[in-house]
Amino acid sequence: MHASSLNQNQQKMNDETSKRYLQELIIQKRRLMYIGQVQSTVFQYLGLWRPQTWNSLWRIWIYRIYSILMITNYSLFIFSMLTYLLRDTSNIFNNMETLFQFSSLFTVGIKMITIMVKRKPIIDSTCILLDKLCQPRDLHELKILQSCSKVCRSNTIILQFMYIVSVFLVLLTPLSKRSNFPLPFKIWIPYSIESRFAYFSIYFCHGVVGITSAFISASVESLAMVIMLQIYAQLEIIVHRLHLLPRLRKKDDSEYMIYQHESRLMKDCVNHHTHTCM
């Protein structure tokens, strides 16, 4: 009798230890959950999102000045390209490449404004995925989130790399010619660029605008993908929890206790779905 009680106590201690270890493991792993950290870093470096830790007044003003400089440089570049197209409307068919580049850069400009204006709603939507309702409760749910985060992170890096390679090909193509190096983009310039300093200054502006547009386009598109995949992972977790309902019947609890467990599980799943998708 005494040995039996000792075995039961030992079993309870082992169960509590395993549960505690599982909880600590889940807490450590869920910190690695990917919800767009790369995109957020890109937006911060490009002057669109001020880092949340920059709360002091002088840091806020420095970042505002930096944001104004980045947006002004990009806006002037688009204006110069539009001016170039309007000054040569009779030869528009020969400027189809420039027209396509202008439409692409103009679209990126709209994305920049949208990201700046919708900063708080976007951050709030990603923070929803870190709420207690969306956190894993067992190893299977943890694996679902880890697999989703791995796909989101790898797809983000691949898309960023492809965009940057495309822009570098556009920027480096003029330098491959032996003479009469043209600029990567055709824009209206109100002064001569025959001197080496003027040419490379304008070339540097072209590079900044091209790299900025590539990073913003890749970040915006991949951020939407990340949010959609993470929502899908949450739905997969809800389905997994609903599959646990038949197991409650296999326990030796009373009908009342089984009903309580089922009601609690259904309520959690409904609240989880409402929190994630609405």
How would you characterize the overall build of this protein?
The protein has 278 residues and is mostly helical. The protein is built from nine helices and no strands. It has one domain. The protein is 75% helix and 0% strand. Helix 2 packs antiparallel against helix 7 and helix 6 runs antiparallel to helix 7. 18% of the residues are buried.
Fill in the keyword field for this structure.
mainly alpha; 9 helices; single chain; 278 residues
By oligomeric state, this entry counts as: single chain
Beta-strand residue percentage: under 5%
Structural class: mainly alpha
Largest beta sheet, briefly?
none
Mean pLDDT across the residues is: 81
Number of strand elements: 0
**Share of helical residues:** over 70%
* CA-based gyration radius: 28 Å
Order of helices and strands: HHHHHHHHH
**Amino- and carboxy-terminal Cα gap:** 55 Å
Annotation field: number of helices: 9
The best one-word shape is elongated
